[in-house]
Design a protein that fits this description.
9 helices, mainly alpha
Length: about 170
């Protein structure tokens, strides 16, 4: 009931952005958080989902976990049949959806959260969803990735060690 009316509009009021992001972060169901992220991506563009990076950087552990769940939905394919903003005749600035630097910011924040995590659950939450392919990380993050891998290889948790092993064997 919520997502469809939001998607049917080519734009949304600016004042709706923060509540949509908060609803996405605080919704505990990874499927339902998409209902808030997807309309925000269509209305405000992928660049605006940097709000999720901010939750990851400075949020509570619960907010960080919510940001990880919501991040997945921030990469929905943009289709003309989903929103009038992309329909024929719709005007959409492609710069709103350019997100390589945001992806890099996400990767950096996640690696730093893992390094600082004292809670195994938080370590799992941020690390196990990260790519294991080194090519997924921009060059300026390679040193941080190597530090993370060194820590993950020696980690007491088997799943975290497996993530490091996958990265050591070329990732996927």
């Amino acid at each position: 009931m919520v997502r469809k009316p939001l998607l049917e509009r080519a734009s949304l009021p600016e004042k709706w952005f923060a509540p949509l992001m908060a609803a996405a972060v605080y919704d505990p169901d990874p499927s339902f958080c998409r209902w808030f992220v997807e309309p925000a991506v269509y209305a405000f563009g992928r660049r605006r989902v940097t709000a999720l990076v901010d939750y990851l950087r400075v949020g509570t552990d619960a907010e960080r976990a919510g940001a990880v769940r919501a991040w997945y939905s921030a990469h929905v394919p943009l289709r003309a049949d989903r929103s009038p903003a992309y329909a024929p005749g719709g005007v959409r600035d492609p710069a709103l959806d350019e997100s390589q630097d945001i992806k890099a910011a996400w990767l950096e924040a996640a690696l730093r959260v893992f390094a600082a995590a004292t809670d195994l659950w938080m370590g799992h939450c941020v690390l196990l969803d990260l790519p294991t392919s080194r090519t997924a990380y921009p060059p300026h993050l390679h040193e941080l990735l190597e530090t993370t891998l060194a820590s993950a290889r020696l980690h007491p948790d088997l799943q975290i060690r497996r993530w490091a092993a996958a990265a050591d064997h070329g990732g996927g």
